[in-house]
Structures are given as structure tokens and as C-alpha cells.
Amino acid sequence: LFRSQRLQEEGVSEAAIQDSEQIMRNEFAALQNQIVLLKQKQWRLIETLRQLETEKVDLENTVVDESQRQSRDQGDTSRLKQDKSSEASPSGSDDDNFRLDAVEEDTDDDENTFFDTRDFLSSSSFKSDRSDLRISSFSSDDDDHHATESKGDIDPSIRSVGGNFPYVKRRKKLPDPKEKEKGVSLWSLIKDNIGKDLTKVCLPVYFNEPISSLQKCFEDLEYSYLLDRAHQWGKQGNSLMRILNVAAFAVSGYASTEGRTCKPFNPLLGETYEADYPDKGLRFFSEKVSHHPMVVACHCEGTGWRFWGDSNLKSKFWGRSIQLDPVGTLTLEFDDGEVF
């Protein structure tokens, strides 16, 4: 008020004084808004830092627990070796028992000879009767996927589809490793790779599964009998059951993902993988067709259907989670021309 009176005494008009005051108010309001925004950014930054600190502590605790577990395992292994070395040399009768055990082990190995370890197909490798099949130590609980279906759930003509091929005994998992890998600090490997593409990160060999990405593509065809049934339902004119079986096949690949925390090996450019399963009526072929980006193409022929496509799996590591983005198109075509 004092300043406005002084300006009026000096001949400044009232309108000019009001305009000047309004300009000053606007400037102060803009400055106040900027201060509020800066305080909000500071608060969000503090919250983000607290969250990152919490995640870091959780990761460090996980690494410590893993290191302690590995130390206990190594201690148990060393004690076991000491116990074995302290034992006396075997006597003559022990030698006889050892030879007998070796003969029995050889016999078991012969009985556990699997179809995929043979060099050729022979009539003895096929068995149409499953009742006299001796279950291998490598088999899993889902040896016969048809056993869980009750007879009243499905048409008998459809239930036999996919199961009328000669039965072949296959292994369900690889033998356990002979040696344990040396422990490595998990935090030292992942702390510099947060936000990076896992396909471009160098990791120790034991972080990989003993298969390549080409072979892993064929795992999606484990339940190919669902497509055989979808083909048969389509021949009978039942489009709904065909779609249901195709949908079940589309998600069946997740059945083998539980507990598998390792990634497959990255194949070489131009590397191929072929699978010929006459007991399932399948012929499969996959190839790595691009290196940057890594693209795998595959083609499969079954009973009344064909399956082909390409896949580019992008993966990123975010400290406590892994982001997987599958990019590609998979196409399924039946002999009657219907395409999914």
C-alpha cells in the first residue's frame, strides 16, 4: 500500500500499478509451484532409493543363504570322502560281492537302454503291450498320459487316437551329474547385468540346461496326441472339440517348466536339430536362421496336421525377476485346410 501511494505521487497510473502487482503475484506463484514439484521429485527419489536398498538386502540375504547351503553340501561331501578313505580294503568275499554287484549293474544298464540311444529302429524296440513293460528308474509319474482319463469322458474312437502307435520306452530325464559344480557368488554375476538382455550375458556353463534352444523347441510337441485328436474331431465335424484340443496343446508346453531355472544353450548360426518319432507319427526339424536377433525356425509334420513357425525370445533380468517376451508366429494347419 505504501509503495502504491508513492508510485501515485510520482505520477504512475492506477492501472499500471495493478498490472505490476499482478505480474509479481504470477511470478511468485510459478516459483512456488516449481518448489512443490521439486519436493515431490525428491520424495519419489527417496522412496525409490529405499526400495532399491530393500531389494539389495533381500538379494544379499539370498546369496548368503545359498553360500551357506553350498558350504554345508561341500562339508558333507568331504566328510563322506574321508569316511570312504578310512575304510579297510575289501576282503576276498567282498571282491566276489563287488563283482556280483557289477554284473547286476550291467544287467540293469542293458534293461535301461532307451530308444533314443539306439542307432537304428528294430522290431524289438517296439512294444505294443504295455503290461509287461518294466518301469525305468529314469521314468516319471506321467509315463502314460492316457491312464488319467476315464472311459466315460471321451468317445472311444477318439480316445484311441494318438495311442495306437507302437510303444517305445523313453527316458524322462537325464542322469544325475557325477560331480557338483563349484559355487560362485550369485550377486557378483547379476549385479552388473540388471536390465540387460540375458542372451547377451556370459554366464558359467552350469547356468545352462544340457540342451540347446533347438531341442527345447521340440518340447512343445510332447503332447502332440492332442493335435491328432483335434484332427479326428474335425473329421467328425465337431469344431468345438477341435478348438478345445488345440487350446490344450497350446498351453501344454508349460507342463515341463516347473523347477527349470536354467536356460538352454545358444546354438550356432545354421545349426539344426532333427527328431523322428515313428511311435508318435512325428517328424520335426528346427534351425537357427538368425544370430542378431536370435531367431529359431521349426517345422513339424504329424498325423493329419502340420506345424511351423519362428520364435525370437527376448529376456531381461531385473534383479528379483526375469522378463520374457516371446516374439514370433506359430501356425497349425490341418489336412482339411483349417488353420490356427
Automatic annotation (TrEMBL):
Listed Basic and acidic residues bias regions: 66-86, 143-156
GO MF assignments: sterol binding
GO cellular component: cytosol; membrane
TM spans (from-to): none
Taxonomic superkingdom: Eukaryota
Region (Disordered): 63-99, 137-163
InterPro entries, sorted: OSBP_sf (IPR037239), Oxysterol-bd (IPR000648)
A Pfam family this chain is assigned to: Oxysterol_BP
Protein's UniProt name: Oxysterol-binding protein
Organism of provenance: Opuntia streptacantha (Prickly pear cactus)
Lineage: Eukaryota, Viridiplantae, Streptophyta, Embryophyta, Tracheophyta
